[in-house]
Structures are given as C-alpha cells and as structure tokens.
Amino acid sequence: MALSDRRDLLILGGGLVGMTLALAAAKEGFSSHVVDRADPAELTAEGFDGRASAISTASWNLFRNIGLAEGLDKHACPIATIAVTDQLKPGRIDFSPEPHEGTLGRMFANRQLRLALFEAARGEPLIAWHSQAEIVARERGEHAVSATLADGQELAGALMIAAEGRGSPTREEAGLAIAKWDYRHRAIITGLEHEKPHENVAWEIFYPAGPFALLPMLDGADGTHRSALVWTVDEADAAGTLKLSDRAFLAEVDKRMGDLFGAVTAVGPRASFPLGFHHTARITGDRLALVGDSAHGIHPIAGQGLNLGLRDVGALVEVLADGARLGLEPGDAQLLARYEKWRGLDAFMVALATDGLTRLFGIPGPAASAVRRFGMGGVQRMPLLKRWFMDEARGVSGDVPEMLRA
Amino acid sequence: MSDATTSPRSNSTPPSTGGATIRPEEAEHFGRLAREWWDPQGSSAMLHRLNPVRLGFIREAVDEHWGGDAESAKPLAGKTALDVGCGAGLLCEPLARLGAAVTGVDAAPENVAAATAHADGARLDIRYLPGELAELDLGRFDLVTCLEVIEHVADKAVLLRSLAERLVPGGLAILSTPNRTPQSKLLLVEGAEAVGMIPKGTHHWSDFVTPEELCELLREAGLEPLAMKGIGFSPMKGLHLSDDLSLNYILSAKPA
Ligand SMILES: Cc1cc2nc3c(=O)[nH]c(=O)nc-3n(C[C@H](O)[C@H](O)[C@H](O)COP(=O)(O)OP(=O)(O)OC[C@H]3O[C@@H](n4cnc5c(N)ncnc54)[C@H](O)[C@@H]3O)c2cc1C
Q1: From CA B232, how far away is CA B252, in angstroms rounded?
Q2: Average pLDDT over residues A298-312
C-alpha cells in the first residue's frame, strides 16, 4: 500500500455528490483522494450536460457552509412556486411557501455546479483529485482500503466511498443488493426559450405517459426567457422523439405546454437518461459507504435526486467528524452503522413517495384520471401531506445534518 | 475485517485486569476470546457498540477536567494515559488518536498480543504490557481508565487502590461497570447471555457493585467521584448515556 499517500477518505466517483463530499469533509479536516474516470474539461464544456438541478434550501445551506454559495449565487434561479397539474386540466395544486419561509429552492445548470465544485476542489490542499483515471482493482482490508489505477498508482485511505452514480461498480463488487424496478421510461432533457417569463414557477404537468416538468432558469444575457425541460416518455417512443427534427420536437413540446409561457421559440441540444428507481437495503459495508445515486436513485419528477445525495454528504461528514472527536477513525464500523441508520430510512421514504407519485400519475385511462384528480384534491385537502411535499422540496424535513442547516 | 478465529461465536465482553485479584478461570476465558475482539460483529459486538457511548463520556470528562476545547482534535496531546484491563485495545486506540501517550495493561497475554498486532496495523504507537497492575512498575499517568473490569475482580478495594496509585496529582480516572439491580440481573446476566449477546460466564451478578458502593470504595482509595452517567439501552436510540443508572454506569474521579 502506498505508504506515502494514505488519506482519510478514498472517494470513487467525483461527480456532483462525490466532489461535494470531498469539499465538505475537507472543511472538517479530512483528507481525501477523489478518483473519476471522466475528463473535467469535457464535463464542464458548454452543452455536455443540459441537465439542471433543483437545489433545495438545505442543499444550498451545505454549499454555503463549504464556501460555494457566493460564487454560485449569480447563477441561481429561485423557485417561488411549484405548480402541479394533470394534463393542464383544472385542478392545479400550487405549492408556495409563506413569504417568511423563503424560496422552494434554486435552479442551476449542472454545468455551473460542476464549475464551482471543480474550482473549489483545485484550491483545496486536502483533496488529491485524480481525473481520467481508470480503477482496475479495489481492496478493503482490516486497517485500510486501496484502489489501483490503470497506470499502476495505488491510492489508499481509511474509508472507501462509492460515489459513482447509479451503476456503481464498487457497490456491485461489494455485493450490496439493490431493489430496483425499471420504469421503462426515459427522460428527455433540453433547454427551452419561450416568449413569456416563467415568473419563477416550476411546473410538473402529468401526462399518462409520465410527467413533463418545466423548471425555471435565469434569463439569458440577451433577456430571453428560459426553462429547463425534463420530459418523460415511454422507452419505446424515446428513440423516435429524440430523432425528431428541431421543428417537429418544438411542435410536440408546444402542444404539451399549452399557453403557459407563450410560444416556444428555441430548443437546445437534446439528451436522454433512462429512468429507474433503485434503493439498496444496505448503504455500508466493511470500510465502505455509499453516497448519492450509488445508494439510491429515484424518479426525477420531484427533483430530489441530487438533494438526497447532498443529505448523504452532510450526514456522513457529521458522523465522521463526531467520531473523530471521540478518537474513532473514519472506517470505524460503529460510525458507519450510524450513517446507515440515519440515511437508509430517509432515502427510502423519499424514493417511495416519488415512486408513488409516478404510479399515481402514470396510469392511463379515464378511471385513473379521476383517481389522479381525486389524488390531487386529496393532496390539496391534506395540509400535512402538502407540508411534507413542500418541506421535502426544500429539504428541511427529517433529521437534517448540521451542515445543511442555516 | 475480522480476525480469523476459531473460537465459538458466543458473544462477549471482556477484559481482565491487573491485580492478584483476577480469577484465573476468568483470565483464561477472555484470552480465548481475544482474537475475536476486533470483529465488530463478533463476540465483542456489545463492547464495540458501547465504545462511542463511553468515549462520549470520556471526551466530556477530559474537556471538563482540563478545560479543553470541545472541538479540538487532540484533547489529550501531551498527556499520558493508562487503560487497565485493556483487552485488545478497543479503548487504547481512540485515546492514542486523541493525542495521549497510551499504555494498556491486561492480565491475559493473548489480549495483549492481539492489541499489539492491531495497533501495528492501525499505525498507532501504543505500549501494551501483560501482567498484574500491582506488580508492574509503570509510574504515574494523567488519565487512568478501567472500564467494565471491576465487576470481574474479587478484591475491588485492592484494584481501586492500585488505580489511585497510578494517577498523578490533578489526574483523572474513569470507571464503568454494571449496576447490581434486578434490571441488570435480568438483562445483562440472564437475558444477554441466554440470547448470546454476551458470552456465557462473562458476568457474575453478585460481583456487581452499586454506584453507592463504588463511590464509597473510591473514597476509601483516596479518589473523589466527579460525574456519573448511566448507560442505557432503548430500541430507538441503541446504547446511550442517560440518567438511568440501573443497568450500567460510567463515572469520573480525581485524587482527593
Ligand atoms: C433526468 C434527470 C433529471 C434530474 N433532475 C434532478 C433535479 O432537478 N434535482 C435533483 O436534485 N436531482 C435531479 N436528478 C438526479 C441527479 O442528477 C442525481 O441524483 C445526481 O447527479 C447524482 O450525483 P452522483 O454524484 O451521485 O452521481 P453522478 O452524477 O452519476 O456522478 C457519478 C460520477 O462517477 C464517475 N464514475 C462512474 N463510474 C466510475 C468508475 N467506474 N470509475 C471512476 N469514476 C466513475 C462519473 O464519471 C461521474 O462523475 C435528475 C436525474 C435525472 C436522470
């Protein structure tokens, strides 16, 4: 084992969650290796990831606590209201916080988040970032963990963290079983320009095939009004939809948006992602913790995926820091048990609730539509549930890690 | 992650101590279990779970006693610590990470061997010595800990006196032990041993001391009790510090 460079954490996967973890851990004095196979220059190239993320108030607190908020603030588009409708029929539910409760979250282009994270990581001496690195072997021993890279380098740490996203090879290798079901749906992601301003409303419009979500983005430099589109289509229709000409695609989008934002004037490059729900019963192993999408992936309609991963980050760093105060090292089994107890249930609750939403709104037919509308009214009538939705969107429910508090 | 072991998967606790006070059959019992110590799911699972709880008490006592900063990484930097009945080093290692120069003593040589091997792997510099506390010439320490040991010892007054002798003036002692109550009899002895949470033969209920008795014994040994907490168990919280002393308790003391 490379004696010279043994660090506290060996983070495999330096995506949004893995890199935030490295930065948050560094704030508490933990050193880390971050290993990612991707090229950061490509990841932050204009147009690579058309995806946008809703950052909840809790996640924003985390960014503030690790010093990212100041630089990111100018790229944020606040969400004032979340409006949910069933095929644009009457029965819209609005989730709006009271004025003193602040916003429901902020929209960011993922590219901006990556730029901010990568810049901070480069300036953090406690982070050793190995990008474009292929991992050929992983080892978890009694006292340490290590990863061997294709170029022969061996990186060591006290705790291995799998942050490689939903296909996590580290999770697979550890044999942590995941419960998953495939929705047989794809999300088509693109940016839209439209005539009227969005007034900071995020729309979730439910169609039988799946939800159509419009997320408010900052106006362009030239004053154009913009939103991010996440359009869920049946896997069978996805290829065809992606192949449509810009003009035909625009017409399809226009039809589904009704007159919400006036005419849609332009669409950006389209990307698509397969959708699925997965959840691991166990999110830790010997000297191993899963965070982010490697631990849980959920349908993106409620915009909770990244937020959930950032809560993993806050919880894990808090558990490790509390442990260090007691002289316990990062790989200590008792600390990992606390992390699993804390995050396992929370992640599952959110996954279940979002999955329930999809199933509720994803069944075609008039009966289902009635049920859906009843469901909608039901939510409207149930302040508790509504409150839960709003709190969840802002990320303030459950046992919130210290770093995610204001 | 665990040491390979051939001993039965009974569950256990611990340590054995210094003093001509230790019963020979107990030293043998724990020696057999030594290799299983470091398996968090193994025979010492209960002790592993107890560790963050008792370390929480120790951290607070240390900060309180020496006026340290609750956030500092090395509150024991520059201090010496002695753990009596150290087993395979479950407590010594965290104390070393907190900055102390640590000595661990255990009557069972097998425990000491396991502890030394583990500390090497963890790259911690800890001095482990087999033998009886009273017979070792160790000098004095800032911090002396003796956790889950006194209940295994026949002559408790002798043990407490030798603990007191190892403390520098202004030093701090930490002890923990099960209480002698109907609850502890039911849970720790009959219950936990019956379901295998703790290895059979670990505890003899009649050897347990109550907090009142222990405080009296401490005073006789020249130690003044400072703070005391119960270690309770609930299904929701697991093991935790509480004001309920009926199962197990942990206390701090200083030379009077
Ligand atoms: C369509 C869609 C819309 C979404 N919208 C939202 C939203 O609005 N709000 C929200 O909060 N969440 C949203 N999510 C979820 C969100 O994108 C994810 O939860 C988040 O990106 C997870 O981050 P991660 O770091 O865990 O995984 P990823 O972002 O998948 O990052 C994994 C990283 O690991 C690296 N990697 C993978 N394999 C290896 C390997 N073998 N070796 C080395 N490195 C490796 C990759 O290069 C990558 O950098 C959405 C998801 C989808 C699909």
Answers
A1: 17
A2: 78
Q: What is the largest CA-CA distance in chain B?
A: 46
Q: Give the DSSP per-residue string, A141-164.
A: -SS-EEEEETTS-EEEEEEEEE-S
Specify which of A35-44, A228-237, B178-187 reaches the highest per-range mean pLDDT.
A35-44
Chain A residues in contact with B48 (beta carbon < 8 A):
333-334
Query: How many whole angstroms separate alpha carbon B202 and alpha carbon B188?
Result: 10
Residue A92: Cβ-neighbour burial (10 angstroms; 0-12, 13-18, 19+) = middle
Question: For A137-146, A168-177, B149-158, B196-205, which range has the lowest pLDDT when averaged over its residues?
Answer: B196-205
Angle ∠(A57,A41,A227) on CA atoms, nearest 5: 45
Q: How far is the CA of A21 from the centre of ligand 1 (A)?
A: 14
Domains of chain A: 7-180+276-400 (3.50.50.60)
Number of C-beta neighbours around residue A165 at 10 A: 16
pLDDT of residue A385: 55
**Distance from Cα A111 to the centre of ligand 1, integer Å:** 12
Whether A230 contacts A189, CB under 8 Å: yes
pLDDT at A380: 52
ipTM of the complex: 0.85
Lowest mean pLDDT among A6-15, A126-135, A258-267: A258-267
Ligand 1, atom nearest to A294 Cα: 26
pLDDT of residue A300: 63
Q: Rounded to whole angstroms, how far apart are CA atoms A324 and A175?
A: 28
Give every CB contact of residue B182 below 8 A, 6+ residues apart in sequence: none
B49 vs A323, A326, A334: nearest CB: A334
Residue A286 CB-half CA count within 13 A? 18
The DSSP letter of residue B22 is B
Cα separation, A399 vs B6, in Å, equals: 42
User: Is the CA virtual torsion B183, B184, B189, B193 positive or negative?
Assistant: positive
Q: At A140, is the pLDDT very low, low, confident or very high (cuts 50, 70, 90)?
A: very high
| Structure-model confidence comparison of residues B110 and B228, the more confident one | B228
Q: What is the CATH number of domain B24-255?
A: 3.40.50.150
Q: How do A264-267 and A178-194 pair as beta strands?
A: antiparallel
pLDDT the model gives residue B246: 92
- Record the pTM: 0.88
The CA distance from A54 to A303, in Å, is: 6
Residue of chain A minimizing CA distance to B94 = A327
